[in-house]
Amino acid sequence: MANSNLRTGVASVILSTGSYLPQKIVTNKDLEKKVDTTDEWIFQRSGIRERRIAAEGETTGDMAIAAARKALESAGLKGSDIDGVIVATTTPDRTFPAVAVKVQAEIGASVGIAFDVQAVCTGFVYALGVADNFIRLGQARRILVIGAEKMSSVINWEDRTTCVLFGDGAGAVILEAQPEGKEGIKGRGIHSTHLYANGAQRDLLYTDGGPSTTGKAGCIVMQGREVFKYAVQYMADVVDEALAANNITAADLDWLVPHQANIRIIEATAKKLDLSMDKVVVTVERHGNTSAASIPLALDEAVRSKKIKKGDLLLLEGMGGGLTWGAALVRY
Biggest alpha carbon distance in the chain? Predict the structure, then answer.
């Protein structure tokens, strides 16, 4: 368990968001031509109609850089104003160095921390928690936190149970250190993060390869029913914990921004919270599951469409391979 609600007089405030989606759209109808499936079957079980797939030669790093530049543009900042880059990804360009150092160099960020976080679909929430701690402890002033994935690179396109679920993309936020006011939960910033993992469940969702085993990245293998069961349970538990830690109820939330894995998991979480789907950001129909990129992609879309406004109280939550899961309560 790694829960953080440090009170150091400094708050980590989200200055801006940014995102990038590849141009290529692959619909369920397109997949009907490749594997034994139907648009109806995919949509009923996942809520997905289409997903974006990276172009040939387009890497996770390329997408992360594009999302970073959008976030910089939205904040009116230059790359040199950033002194930290954290990228959540499970599909890096290379085994090493980290995608984050590529982003750091390409945007012209100041010399400072730059590293990747690997917690699969929970990666962005993990990265947000890590960045928040760096800022609260005075070790960085502005950190670019990115979730970026090329999931198409670890898909078995002959496995109809998994190839229909995933997509590619990147999302980013810029966190800035600002004085922590006396408004409590009404003040802007990250109020708490709640991070978990249970390695005993690592074989429920994994890739069948890696540098020290097969020498290849491998492809996704998933026990779908078991993952679904734990996803609903863990999401409800961690959301309840985040609310209790901040002495609020679900009624106080303006928006739930969940990991976009499956519409049924999202709806089950909202139901357990007694939260209307009108207060839930949903992009899974058009994006599919983009792993660590899904929460920042959904967040940026909601910000740019003016659903989410400055001062709104957001709960971000996700679960991924590991199994890992987590949540973050944020006043945008």
Answer: 58
pLDDT digits (tens, 9 = 90+) for 255-277: 999 999 999 999 999 998 899 99
pLDDT surpassing 80 at residue 7: no
Is residue 309 within 8 Å of 327, Cβ to Cβ?
Answer: no
87, containing H or E segment: strand 84-88
- Looking at residues 245-263, what average pLDDT do you find? 96
Mean pLDDT, rounded, of the chain:
96
88 touches 292 (CB < 8 A): yes
Instruction: Tell which residue, 230, 228, 62, has the closest CA to residue 153.
Output: 62
In the predicted model, is pLDDT for residue 5 greater than 90?
no
Cα–Cα distance list, 278 to 182, 252, 272, 273 (Å): 31, 14, 15, 13
Task: Write the DSSP assignment of 289-313 as a string of letters.
Answer: B-GGGHHHHHHHHHHHTTSS-TT-E
Q: How far apart, in whole angstroms, are the C-alpha atoms of residue 283 and residue 301?
A: 8
Residues composing the chain: 332
Q: Which domains does the chain have, with CATH numbers?
A: 1-332 (3.40.47.10)
Q: Which residues are catalytic?
A: 121, 259, 289
Q: Note the Cα 2 to chain centre separation in Å.
A: 18
CA distances from 194 to 140, 324, 325, 328 (A): 21, 11, 8, 6
